[in-house]
Sequence to fold (953 residues):
Amino acid sequence: MASAALGTTLRQIHRLLSEGSLAGLSDEQLLTRYVAERDEAAFEAVVARHGPMVVGVCRSILRDEHAAEDAFQATFLVLARKANAISDRDSLGGWLHRVAYRIAVAAGVERQRRRQAEASASVLSDRSEGRGDWHSVLHEEIDRLPEVLRAPIVLCYLQELTYEQAAQQLSWTVPTLRSRLAKARGKLRSRLIRRGLIGAVGLLGGLADARWAIAAIPAHWIRRVVSNAAGAPAVSGTAVTLASAMLRTMAFSRTKGFAIVAVSAAVTMASFGLLAASFQGNGKGLAQEPVNKVLPRVIPPPVSPPVRPTRDMPGATVEVRGQVVDPAGKPVAGASLRIDQYVTGLAKPAEGGEPTAKSGTDGRFTLTVPRDVIDMLSQGLARRASRVVASASGFGLGWAEAGSRSDNVHDVTIRMVEDDVPLEGRVLDLEGRPIAGALVRTSDVFDPPGRDLSPWIETFKNGVNGPYDGLDSMPLQLTRTTGPDGRFRLDGVGRERVVMFTIFGPTIELTRGFAMTKETPPIRAANPRIIAPKTVVYHGCRFDYIAAPGRVVTGVVRDQDTAAPLVGVEIHGMSFDSSNLAYYKEVNAISDEQGRYRLVGLGQADHYRLFATPGQGQPYPTAEFIEKSTAFGSQSAIIDLRLKRGILVRGRVTDKATGKPLVASVVSFALRDNPHVKDFPAFGKAYEPRAYTDAEGRFEIAALPGPGILAARGYSDGYLSGVGAEAIPGMNSGLSVSALPHDVSPSHYHVFASLDFEPGAEPVTCDMQCDPGRSLSGTIVDPEGKPITGVWAHGLKPVQIINHPALETDQFQAIALDSKHPRRLYFFHEGRGLSGSVVVKGTESGPLVVQLQPQGVITGRIVDDDGEPKTRLELRSFNKPELNLLRGDILKGGRVDSEGRFRLVVVPGLAYGASAITEQSPGVRVRLFEAENLGPGEIRDLGDLRFKQPPGQ
Fold:
């Protein structure tokens, strides 16, 4: 304990904190008591908590006892003067570190000015001065860190809390703390190296015994600052001068007390030894953690939900800052900023709409965002990072990530795109006549790498990429109306981009199209991603669009048994095509009080595919109808619909560890042998009943009577999959179970519940909990044992997205681990040609160290029976690597080029096998090879591999 290093007075205060009336009081409570009552004991308790850290900072920089005392007194004098202005009083440690550091630096400048005549004789002769300079540089770089990275450094290294204690004080999860601490160490390491300290091993090692930094605080230091806080002038004149200068700086900077870091109390200050060791660059030291980490690395979720901390209260926010610049890097004033979220409903909109902001004359902005959005990101739980989106007159839409999947929010720079290539089009009917009054609506804009479409166009035309491969997308909603000549002009997209749009009118069929803001002929190619249309056309920036004539479909929605009209049923419609599995929602209507609906914008077809989604609280399962039309030409088609009444299921979805409500989707299935399925003829064709939770995690969904399944999935990858699946008949083997509308796999949902109702049953309640499981952290090193950054990792989350960025540091964290189902993690460094893997359960003591080695490469060429190259193929792993952990998963290089060649990057020591799938038959696999096991750095060419076409293809 640090109390061994404290003086007698401080030990008594420490005992009071532990046993007396101040036990358990937070910094916020102590400061509130001091401000409201001028409670001397409360202020004295604050000094006891944070004094060791403050004096350590002052001594590290000043290296003079008298000067350190002045800086120490000045720091707490500033606290006494600013206590009532600190907005987050429970976040005091980081605030005091910043104040102490800056006061000590100012005191050092003044002291150096007085000693300038002596400086030439003492630059290199005193080794302790060298250590002092090192301490000063270290504190300077800690001060430069953003608040969210400085907080864990102060807690874990300067105040010696364990990970669990620090996470609790910060209201973070332990995985979040580890991730941010790792990034903070990485930033400090790189900055120190840039400042020329790469060879300072002697100084770094000398810090391990620098116990002078946490020597006892003299009792008279404490008495003086406490007496001064109580109104008696007791501190030195120098301390008053330093404090006054700091208070003036605060007033001018308008930073509300230096933007408080959420750091809580401790009664000790760690030596800098381990922190310094973590920057030595020797591989081993970089992976070390604070020396007092004695708790287990993996902590199981608490049995009972904890008290929700202040920062998680409804309405809590965080500020996202950044700058908007033009293509040349100059500030853009007056740009509108908003936050874009990948999943609708990830956070509740702010009162009055989504959070927005405007950039100032210097292009800078501050956007206030709901705290829960950033927390989802910083814990690595959201499927994609939220992005800040900027729009400004004369520019195309700009955006930048506000935070990564493993990082907290950070400052962003949004570089806008020139908008000098508008889309200019003309909408014509089949006879070439202009169509006036048609609506042209954009839905998405796609941005190519380097903001140059030419490379993407070439790969797309040559069949190397699909229509969306290699493009970054962002929703973009613009609407234009065609004039009397059928023309429209679409600004605001930005040059060298692709935009998706629909064209709609009362007399034409609603159709979807693509255009490029580039002077180029149209591109026509097969579309493997969407089954229909089979061919997709990308127009240039000037084009004519031929619209087909439309038709109106009307009808009445009724109860199947009583014929009573149903109100509030949403109907979506599209022309029926047996090869089209897409579910388009642009043409829609909601049934009125008489059950009537009217769809405008469908094509003139023989059959229509209609989807019925009853409103919330209605016990009717989702239904799909394929209905014949007897209408001719432009005549309206009349199609009545009947829905069968099911059972209404209500419940809540919550996090098992915290008890908090989750944003989640809930789906209802019927087992295929359910005898009541025959009574629901419109159920089970393609789309299942689905509900979404509200802000409290509540849902309502309709289910069929008889045996069925209720499955929930949170909008987060941070939960175990398949919880409760063992209770589902036929799913206890871990494989998918036969169900309607489609089979159900335990890996696709987080939690399951078994259903079995009698027909006509009253509404039932079914609450569901998503389990975050266990987590495990580690470090990645190269073949020489040195930490390595820029590594691409796969398997860190139970649900994987292949197209994600490389890790920013040498640290990784695997979440939602289940000891019953081990998971293999894969690591690749493309630039250095390294790879590695490890199998984890979450029960390991950790943290792990994964050493990469030269990757293996499998090459070959795929040919048909005539020896001609097979193209437009994609290679997938043969069998399922997750069921056999000795098999490797094909993650890199699965596409075949225009000459039939492929190049697979693999992890040495694992057995690899591959199958090929075609764009025409994505569900059919053709085995190519199996059981290829490579050594480190081995390149194996398999030569020509025969692709045997499946029968009937």
Notes: The first strand starts at residue 317 and ends at 325. The two ends are 74 Å apart (CA to CA). The chain has a mean pLDDT of 77. Residues 451 and 496 are 6 Å apart (CA to CA).
